[in-house]
Amino acid sequence: MGIEDYGGGQTDRSDVLVVTTNDVPGHQVTRVIGEVFGLTVRSRHLGSQIGAGLKSMIGGELKGLTKTLVETRNQAMERLVEQAKARGANAVLMMRFDVTEAADVGTEVCAYGTAVVISRS
């Protein structure tokens, strides 16, 4: 597995800039659209649960679960960007992730932030 299996984030081709900061240096917010989010819930694969259980006894990283969580976060982020774009935003400020166990059957991941229109100052 390469580094791309354990990372995420935007590509250079994205129409919507997503940042975790309150502003973007060299830009000003010209319009605040409001909160946007991307949500996904993933169930755990039985095979990965068994493997994780065995691995937890001897220690070490649970690579299968790590990869699944990265994919889940990336999907939530893609949905966030789609919603922001559909509402006319070209940026999302203060993006955060929220991760919650969903009724012991899976993991809920929500990416959220404030959709805005920015322009160069």
TrEMBL record:
InterPro entries: UPF0145_dom_sf (IPR035439), UPF0145_YbjQ-like (IPR002765). PANTHER family: UPF0145 PROTEIN SCO3412, UPF0145 PROTEIN YBJQ. Belongs to the UPF0145 family. This is UPF0145 protein SAMN02787144_101468. The lineage of its organism: Bacteria, Bacillati, Actinomycetota, Actinomycetes, Kitasatosporales.
